[in-house]
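pinned: reference chain
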Amino acid sequence: MTRSELSPEHETDSSAPALTGDYVERALLAARDLLESTVTRHRRELAQDSWAGKALGQVPLAEVVDTLVDGAERTVSVVLSGGEEQSEVVCAALARPARGGRGRRAVRLLCLPRALDAARVRALARTDPRCEVRVCDGQLPEALFIDGQIVYVRNEPPDPARDGGRQASLVEDPAAVQALELMFAGTWGNAVALEDYPRLGGRLCPANARRILECLRTGHTDEVAARDMQVSLRTYRRYVAEIMRELGAGSRFQAGVRAVELGLLPDH
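pinned: its structure tokens
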């Protein structure tokens, strides 16, 4: 009997074992991811139960951030205000390897300029290909967005002397989360990529650099600006020359415009 005369049930498919093996492997991976996700969600719920009896602002920041970041499966978005504690805690949590398939999560860091003073922020951007960093100017509260489902917001108290600590809240209402996500997305879309953001003046602190840029944009005379900054006229003009060189500006007005384009100054 020739091979062509064999009935279908007598024919063999050499690819069947391989296909079966691939299917089993995928099933096992899916089961592992589901188990990891369930365990992580359970841990997060237990942590939130333990936070319920106290003001969230009094819970150690590291405890909250570690719990939320560890449970992220798809996306982590952060507003870094520049506080040393927040930068250290957030970057440390994001640098730790995630369990299961959550290593594929995308990370977005939206930094105020002073947050770039923390070396760990730039180090994280260099070492994690899934991490994108942008810089914006303005007054934004510290915030942590997890998978479009949870937002942890941390504000300065309205009266630090009376309240004595940070005010924090955990937002889980879908409508409120969506509103906060839209606000973040709008600011993110207008922010400057880290690689395009200049570090102004090696001898100038960021606050002084922004003051000089504001003087250039508003047309202050050198004498008035130098007096306001309490530096000599010669020193002020040297600072201006350094800033113009770093911005690649041919005139003082162009330096002010360029600063707005790069997000170094708010667009009034």
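why pinned: The CA atoms of residues 181 and 187 lie 10 Å apart. The longest helix spans residues 16-51.
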